[in-house]
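C-alpha cells incoming
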C-alpha cells in the first residue's frame, strides 16, 4: 500500500501522554471504565493505559465493544453492535475510546448503546477527528489531532484490514489496497 506519513510515532506518543495526563486529572477521584471500539481503538487505548500515571492505574478498568459498519473503505451507513462489553456498564463512569471520528455515526451508535445501560457518566476520547465530514453532532471530550478529509491508516486504523500495525499515521494515497 502507498502511504504518505502524516503524524509520526513520536508525535503520537507525546499527544497520548498529554491525553492520559488530562484523563487522570479529570478522573482523579473517580473510578473509570474505558471502552474501546474494536478494532481501530485497540492500539490507542492500550497506549493511553500505559501512559496513565501509576497512581491512576488502580482505578481504571477497560473493556472493548465491537461494531460493524465499514465494508472496505466505505461506510455502509449502518452500524451494528457485534460484540457486547463483558463488563456491566450500569453505574460505571464510562469513557468511550475510538481511533477516529469521521461522520460520527459509529460513535453516536455506540454512545446510544452505552447510554441505554444506565452508566453514571459517559465521555468520549478519540485520537483523530475529521470534522469536515461530520453528519452527527458528537461532543468530543478528549481529541488527539484534528485532520483534513483524507483516508488514513496506521496506529490501529486500517484500510480494508490492512495497515493497522504501522507505527505512524499516514494518508492512503490510492484506494486500491493490493499494493
Ligand atoms: P464514522 O462512523 O464515519 O465516524 O467512522 C468511524 C469509523 O470508521 C472509525 O471507527 C474507523 O473504523 C472508520 N474510519 C473512518 N475514517 C477512517 C480513516 O480515515 N481511516 C481508517 N478508518 C476510518
Ligand atoms: Mg476500519
Amino acid at each position: 500500500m502507498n502511504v504518505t506519513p502524516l503524524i509520526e510515532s513520536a508525535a503520537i506518543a507525546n499527544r497520548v501522554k498529554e491525553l492520559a495526563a488530562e484523563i487522570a486529572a479529570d478522573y482523579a477521584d473517580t473510578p473509570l471504565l474505558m471502552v474501546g471500539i474494536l478494532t481501530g481503538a485497540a492500539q490507542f487505548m492500550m497506549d493511553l493505559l500505559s501512559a496513565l500515571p501509576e497512581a491512576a492505574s488502580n482505578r481504571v478498568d477497560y473493556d472493548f465493544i465491537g461494531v460493524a459498519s465499514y465494508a472496505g473503505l466505505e461506510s455502509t451507513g449502518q452500524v451494528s453492535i457485534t460484540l457486547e462489553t463483558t463488563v456491566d456498564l450500569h453505574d460505571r463512569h464510562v469513557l468511550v475510546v475510538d481511533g477516529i471520528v469521521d461522520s460520527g455515526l459509529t460513535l453516536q451508535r455506540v454512545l446510544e448503546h452505552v447510554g441505554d445501560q444506565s452508566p453514571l457518566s459517559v465521555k468520549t476520547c478519540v485520537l483523530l477527528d475529521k470534522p469536515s465530514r461530520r453528519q452527527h453532532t458528537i461532543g468530543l471530550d478528549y481529541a488527539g489531532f484534528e485532520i483534513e478529509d483524507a483516508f488514513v491508516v496506521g496506529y490501529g486504523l486500517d484500510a480494508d484490514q490492512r495497515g493497522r500495525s504501522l507505527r505512524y499515521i499516514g494518508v492512503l494515497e490510492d484506494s486500491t489496497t493490493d499494493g
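note: Residues 9-150 form a domain with the Rossmann fold fold (CATH 3.40.50.2020).
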